[in-house]
Amino acid sequence: MKILLVRLRLIGDVVFTTPVIAALRRRYPDAYIEYLVEAGAAPIVETNPHLNRVRVIAHSRGWQRLRDDASLAKALRGERFDLAIDLHGGPRSAWLTWASRAPRRVCYDVAGRSWMYTSVVHRPRELRPRHSVENQWDLLPAVDAAFAASASPDRDRVEMPVDPAAATSVDRRLAALGLGVDAQVIVLHVSAGNPFRRWPEASFAALAADLVQDDTRRWIVVTSGPSDHEAAVRVIAAARARAGAAGQRIVEVEGLTLSELRALMDRAALFVGGDSGPLHIAATSDVPVVGLYGPTLPERSAPWRPSRIPTASVDAGVLPCRPCDQRVCAPGDFRCLTGVPAETVRDAARRLLETAR
Which of 74, 78, 107, 330 is most buried, judging by how many CB atoms fall within 10 Å of its CB? Predict the structure, then answer.
């Protein structure tokens, strides 16, 4: 059997598909399984042991996309897939799934695109308190009745195996900053893809200062996306000003690839960050995670992994505007994020650090 999986774009969304990949491999141990993904999220699955091939495509636009997709469709037809599963249902993924001409094509019942599939699965439109991994898993029973059992975080965890070259690179970069092998590394990811998921910089600075002063072995490693480097610099400056002499152990590791970020998690004693791609990469490791949730719900995107691994989800509690579609902040003040006190996150971090000892 030849199986095509399609999930274009975002990092966290691709992470959430990895339990499906492993489940298909268990069910069809001799199958050829190919994953179609855009370049930005490709590192998530490039080291996945259950895939035969990862086909990486550009995130192009306009006429260039039409040209690229026509060429890609021809290549996919030539592979003669028996089954294609669209793990998203967006316009581009739907068209590519249909264009593969696989005799079985599975996706959700997306308005205006259901005709492109041979089997569709109902997906409610509202933002339910149900994990995204479970939403992806819903497609599997349409493939085979053997998948009737629900996904389990203990058996079907998200995964992203470490690239050895990335691990070597991270070790070298940490050593250059002065971190020894016995350093207790706390990773703070201070940025997110949109303002609806950014905890205030002042809160990150207060958290970093408090945690670094707790233990002389402790180092705070601040990471950020390429567009948020200046935010990371501001957080570090403010944190050092609060931390006194201990502030020299608050550093930035700039320009990490996704593979290096994953490798960093295996050196870390704790990860703290908002509901964005880096948190979901952290979830593929065994590092304790403190997740910060503003407009989103931890029930939808908290780390999906065995319960033995320490995890804490912190949010502002019940608000009439939460969850939201992250297009317009109705109150205008992002209270779902500003309402999460640094002290609450600090206390959660301390509990997890103590538990993990």
Answer: 107
Does the domain at 2-147 match CATH 3.40.50.2000? Answer given as yes
Residue 324 has pLDDT above 80, yes or no: yes
Half-sphere exposure for 318 (CA within 13 Å, toward CB):
0
Pairing mode of beta strands 83-86, 184-189: unpaired
| Residue 240 CA: distances (Å) to CA of 231, 268, 351 | 14, 20, 23
Burial 183-205 (b: 16+ CB within 10 A, else e): bbbbbbbbbbbeebbbbebebbb
Tell me whether the CATH fold assigned to 2-147 matches the one assigned to 164-355: yes
Q: Global pTM?
A: 0.94
State how far the Cα of 103 lies from the Cα of 118, in Å rounded to an integer: 8
Nearest to 218 by CA among 191, 188, 198: 188
Alpha carbons 183 and 217: distance in angstroms, whole number: 5
The CATH class that applies to domain 164-355 reads: alpha beta
Instruction: Tell the residue number behind the tokens 């600090």, with chain if given.
Output: 346
